[in-house]
Amino acid sequence: MAGKKSSAEKRHAQSEVRRLHNKAIKSTCRTYAKQFVEAVQAKDQKLAEEKYKQLQKELDTARSKGVLKRNAVSRKKSRMMNLYNATFAAK
Predict the structure, then answer these.
(1) In a domain, 4, yes or no
(2) Which of 15-19's residues contact partners 24+ apart within 8 Å by CB, and which partners?
(3) What residue numbers bound the domain in which 18 lies?
(4) Does 1 score more than 50 pLDDT?
(5) 37: Cβ–Cβ under 8 A, 6 or more apart, which residues?
(6) Per residue in 7-53, pLDDT tens?
(7) Rounded Cα gap, residues 18 and 66, in angstroms
């Protein structure tokens, strides 16, 4: 028995669900990145380390789910660590 939706309508509905899911994951990554940068700018080393661990976990999760590409995740983690080192290496 055929369904009521055409295959194109079904694919569109599926892609919309995936788009919203991916958008939520990317938003979470941006939020953690923002919190990390704020902690670094406040010169709170302990908080910055904690936020970096959270950010790293979220980026790795996004990578494993295929939301972000491998090189993009590596680039973001590298830039955040460079920011951290530039701020706290002088101590």
Answers:
(1) no
(2) none
(3) 9-88
(4) no
(5) 80, 83
(6) 999 999 999 999 999 999 999 999 999 999 999 999 999 999 999 99
(7) 11
Q: Cα separation of 10 and 15, whole Å?
A: 9
Tell me, what CATH number does 15's domain have? 1.20.58.110
Q: How many domains does the chain have?
A: 1
User: Which of 37-64 are b and which e, b meaning 16 or more Cβ less than 10 Å from the residue's Cβ?
Assistant: bebbeeeeeeebeebbebbbebbeebbe
Residue with tokens 């993009």: 72
Q: Which residues of 2-27 are buried (b: 16+ CB within 10 A; e: fewer)?
A: eeeeeeeeeeeeeeeeeeeeeeebee
Q: Write phi, then psi, for 85 (nearest 5 degrees).
A: -65, -40
Tokens for 21? 């899911």
Closest alpha carbon to 37 in 29, 27, 48:
48
